[in-house]
C-alpha cells in the first residue's frame, strides 16, 4: 500500500516526507496506522557516518497506533486494536526465554541495522528502490508501520494511544532500572544523573517505589524544576564543583542507588562515589569515552552495572506503567511535546538543543 514516511536520504540531509510502498502483512505480522511516535536520540544514529544502519532509512522506534490489517498466523490481535510498538527480539534464545528480551542474542541485527534479519525489507520508494524499514522492528516515523505481532503491546481502546509510544524506550528504561534492576524499596535513596526521558522516568518510578530521597542532577534548571514536580526531593546542577559533597549530604552519607543517563565518565565517577557501601550504580545508554575508576570506587561492595531496556518485558511492564498513569502516579505526558510528522527536523533540532524532553511526531490524519 502507499503510505507516507520520513525518509533519511543522507547522513547530513534533512528528512524528506515521501510516498513509499509498504508490503502487506506476512505471517505473524500486523499493519499499524501510527497515531504518534517518539523521537529518541538513538534514532539519530543513522546520521553517524559508518554506522551499520545506513540511509536511505526510516527511523522511529517509539510508535503506537491502531491495527489495520493482520497477516496469517496472528491470533491475539485484530483490526481496530490499539497497540504500542516495542523493539524486536527473537523470543527463542536463552536470554529471551529468561525474560530478558533486550539482551536477545540477535538484538543488534534485529534493531540497529535497519534491515532486520528476515531478508528483503518491506518498503520501496517511488522508483522501486529499497528503503530500510526494520529500524527496531518498526520504523514508525511514518503513517503506517509493518511489525511482528510478537513485538506489540495491546492496550485499552479508551487510552490516548497517540501518547503511549514513548513508554516503549527511554521512559521504560529509566522506570525499569528503578523498579526492576534496582528493585528500589520504601525509604531508600536514589540519585539520578541526567533529566532526559530515561532520567525523568526513573524519578517518577522512584517516587512510586516510595524512595525517601530522590536526587536529580542536570545542568538545565528547567529540567531540575520539572524533576522536582515529578517527585525529586533535591535538584543539583551537574556542573557544580561541590556536587560530590552535595550528593553525600543529601543522601545522609551515600545513596543506595544511582542511575547515570548522561554517559559522561566524570559524572559516572561522581555517581559511584556517592554510593553508600553495598550500593549500586546503573548505566543507561552509550558511554562517551573510557571510564576510569580509582582503586577505592568499588570497595565495600559497591556494584556498577549496565542496563538495557530497564531489564523489563515490555508486554508486562508497559501495561504496569499505564496502570500507574491511570492512578495519577506516573504522569509521563508532562515530558511530551507534540510535532507534526512533517516538522520532524524541527523536532530533531529541539531535542538536540535541549528545548524539549520527548518530541512526539504525529502523522496527519
Automatic annotation (TrEMBL):
UniProt domain Alcohol dehydrogenase-like N-terminal: residue ranges: 26-128
Lineage of the organism: Bacteria, Bacillati, Actinomycetota, Actinomycetes, Streptosporangiales
Domain Alcohol dehydrogenase-like C-terminal, first and last residues per copy: 199-315
One matching Pfam family: ADH_N
InterPro entries: ADH-like_C, ADH-like_N, ADH_Zn_CS, GroES-like_sf, NAD(P)-bd_dom_sf
GO molecular-function terms, A-Z: aryl-alcohol dehydrogenase (NAD+) activity; zinc ion binding
The family this protein is said to belong to: Belongs to the zinc-containing alcohol dehydrogenase family.
Alphabetical UniProt keywords: Metal-binding, Oxidoreductase, Zinc
Organism the protein comes from: Thermomonospora cellulosilytica
Cofactor(s) needed for function: Zn(2+)
Protein name: Aryl-alcohol dehydrogenase
Documented EC number(s): 1.1.1.90
Amino acid at each position: 500500500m502507499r503510505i507516507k514516511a520520513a525518509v533519511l536520504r543522507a547522513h547530513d540531509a534533512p528528512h524528506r516526507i515521501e510516498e513509499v510502498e509498504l508490503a502487506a502483512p506476512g505471517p505473524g505480522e500486523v499493519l499499524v496506522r501510527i497515531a504518534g511516535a517518539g523521537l529518541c536520540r538513538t534514532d539519530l544514529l543513522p546520521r553517524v557516518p559508518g554506522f551499520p544502519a545506513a540511509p536511505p532509512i526510516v527511523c522511529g522506534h517509539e510508535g503506537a497506533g491502531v491495527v489495520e490489517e493482520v497477516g496469517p498466523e496472528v491470533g491475539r490481535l485484530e483490526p481496530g486494536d490499539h497497540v504500542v510498538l516495542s523493539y524486536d527480539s527473537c523470543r527463542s534464545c536463552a536470554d529471551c526465554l529468561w525474560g530478558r528480551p533486550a539482551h536477545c542474542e540477535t538484538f543488534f541485527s534485529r534493531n540497529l541495522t535497519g534491515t532486520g534479519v528476515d531478508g528483503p525489507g518491506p518498503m520501496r520508494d517511488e522508483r522501486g528502490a529499497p528503503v530500510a524499514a526494520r529500524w527496531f522492528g518498526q520504523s514508525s516515523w511514518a503513517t503506517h508501520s509493518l511489525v511482528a505481532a510478537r513485538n506489540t503491546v495491546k492496550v485499552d481502546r479508551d487510552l490516548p494511544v497517540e501518547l503511549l509510544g514513548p513508554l516503549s524506550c527511554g521512559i521504560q528504561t529509566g522506570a525499569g532500572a528503578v523498579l526492576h534492576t534496582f528493585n528500589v524499596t520504601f525509604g531508600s535513596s536514589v540519585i539520578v544523573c541526567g533529566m532526559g526521558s530515561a532520567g525523568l522516568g526513573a524519578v517518577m518510578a522512584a517516587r512510586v517505589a516510595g524512595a525517601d530521597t530522590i536526587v536529580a542532577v542536570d545542568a538545565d534548571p528547567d529540567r531540575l524544576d520539572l524533576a522536582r514536580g515529578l517527585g525529586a526531593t533535591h535538584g543539583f546542577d551537574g556542573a557544580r564543583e561541590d556536587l560530590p559533597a552535595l550528593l553525600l549530604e543529601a543522601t545522609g552519607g551515600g545513596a543506595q542507588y544511582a542511575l547515570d543517563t548522561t554517559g559522561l565518565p566524570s559524572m559516572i565517577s561522581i555517581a559511584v562515589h556517592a554510593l553508600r557501601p553495598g550500593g549500586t550504580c546503573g548505566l543507561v545508554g552509550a558511554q562517551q569515552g573510557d571510564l576510569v575508576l580509582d582503586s577505592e570506587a568499588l570497595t565495600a561492595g559497591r556494584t556498577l552495572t549496565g542496563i538495557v531496556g530497564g531489564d523489563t518485558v515490555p508486554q508486562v511492564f508497559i501495561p504496569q506503567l499505564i496502570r500507574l498513569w491511570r492512578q495519577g502516579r506516573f504522569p509521563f505526558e508532562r515530558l511530551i511535546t507534540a510535532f507534526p510528522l512533517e516538522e520532524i527536523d524541527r523536532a530533531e533540532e529541539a531535542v538536540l538543543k535541549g528545548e524539549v524532553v520527548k518530541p512526539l511526531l504525529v502523522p496527519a490524519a
